[in-house]
Amino acid sequence: MSSGSDNTSGSLGWRLQATRETAFVGREEELAVFTAALYGGGCSVLYVHGPGGVGKSALLRRFAGEAAAAGRPVSMVDGRTLEPPGTSEADPVPRDADAVLLVDNVDRVHGLEGWLRERFLPRVPMGALVVIAGRCPPDMRWQADPGWAGALEVLPLRDLRPGDARALMDARGVPAELREPLQAFAGGHPLALLLGAAVAVKDGGAGRRWTPDQDVVGTLLDQLVGELPSAAHRRALEVCAHAHTTTEDLLRAALPQDAGTLFGWLRRLPFVESCSLGLFPHDVVREVLEADLRWRDPEGYAVMHDRLRAHLAEKVRTASDVDAPGAVAALLYLHRGNGPPDDFRDGGEFGEELLRQEDVGTLVRVATAAEGTASADCAAFWAERRPEAFRLYRRTGTGEPVACSAWLRLAELDEQELAADPVVAAAWAHARATTPLRAGEHLAVGRLWVLPPYRGHAPVMEVIRWRMIADCLRAERMAWSCVALRHPNQAWAERLRRYGMRVLSEQPRLGDDAHTLFVHDWRAVPARAWLERMNQPLVAGPAGGPAAATAELAVLSRAQFAEAVRKALRQLPRLDALAASPLTRTRLIAERAGQDPATALGEVLRQAIDDLREDPRSVKFHRALSATYLRGAPTQELAAERLGLPFTTYRRHLTAGVERVCADLWHRELYGTSAPAYRSACAAPP
């Protein structure tokens, strides 16, 4: 036990205390609670808890100073120096009714908290004030005991507010150009700010490029996390740091064994919090764990990332419609270092709902306030024709409508629709002039109307963006997507380019306002390839987006595709000729990832010929194709002779067989190799 007023002027202790006081900022609310208790207007016991380095010990020292200034005897106890309860005869119970006792690091000694609650504190005289500090919240038995209801007050200690964090950096002499990167790393965490400030001030040349070195990261890991029970526990914590939120299901995807046990351990850590979506660590803990793993084990980091990405990409595909935006946010969070910062709050401030008939008036009012009458007329036009495409966004607290969005799925357009909406007409014209829609495909046009106060980087904009990405990744047979924005801000434009969306030079006008169209051909870069591109480091590509992880696919019309199949059949023995075929750049071959495209094309063609044997009606077609293209007859006449067929009969069988192969492969190109009933679903050959 030590006194809070041992230091005398001129001593080293006095100097240390004075320096600490200059580094103490904020905590007005906590000081107000302590002052009320100090002067008899509050509780008898304060329980302060928060993660390591958040400033508990500094706050207790400030409490000691306030108590000493009030003329009350002060004692401080460090839980790390106490003997375990029951092993020492020393009795630190204060006898003075004016005493103030401060107990730090209460959770460093097993059983100390229970001993304090059951045996120590009941013997403290009335009027005395006890402050207990530890990393974990008090045991639930405090709250379950009615006797402690009015005597105990719990103070969770959070990060410093932004203004207080800036004041702390000022006190430590951090240059202006270093404050932004330091605060971006440390947020309001006092220990991270102080450690980062000490290093940043010495490394003055880093400027806005400053990042914490491994000494800072290692020190923070020791102070915030400490020793971990096992390698599995460390990996679980690293998963929790990398993911937006962690559930037992997510943990199982990365660590199949003991996921339940490890999840239970995670939720009890003092620097891990919970929300409706799962668990998440303190921001600084997240940052240092990420930085340490990427530096210490880059291969292990990549393996963990890939497992989580595969799991979350599947979640996007299978999530319910309501949960789809959140699933997209969780997936994008894994790539949070690429491009402009995102706001990954869970969107709880705003609610999304499908448009009802009685909401059409609200839609028109929001669209008018957001973009004017001409744009509102377009919204009303489409709401009448396709109400299922619209969603309305309201503030959850007040029900106030703040935004609307539409995702128009268009397989064909009539003249009235083209005339009613110049934005949709421009998107449709671009698709027809570039790579037109094929049978069963559609074009999607995304529109949004957001009230002026909520534009820019507001959370509702993020929710709308996640919804549109979900619509793209979950779509069936979508050829083109187009997102139309009136005066897009730089952050949104940069994100859309990052997502591989090209900006059209044509800007259709609604009234006096021009709209920028961002388009993407999902046949050239399907969802799987798009996700692979997103997984690459952000490098400016040809369209201003990420560098392509795979080449764009060729988008052929049915006639072009059939002609390419006929030519490839004739070139089947020659790999060099097959390598030049446009079929090697189609979805048909892209789905056979990892293979040489020419080899894959040859295998696909041979398999398509062999598949004809499964249908008794097609056996004769198989024989003609096999004799001509697989067994390499020098001439068609010789192939007919080997089959024992008249030449005209052979030619009829060969032509029909080629058309069947073209139809089967076209169906696979459109629907994928997992689609059932290729032949029955195929239309007549061209």
TrEMBL record:
Transmembrane segments: none annotated. It comes from the Bacteria. Coiled coil: none annotated. InterPro entries: AAA_16 (IPR041664), P-loop_NTPase (IPR027417). Residues 24-70 form the Orc1-like AAA ATPase domain. One of its GO terms (molecular function) is ATP binding. Keywords: ATP-binding, Nucleotide-binding. This is ATP-binding protein. It comes from Nonomuraea deserti. The lineage of its organism: Bacteria, Bacillati, Actinomycetota, Actinomycetes, Streptosporangiales.
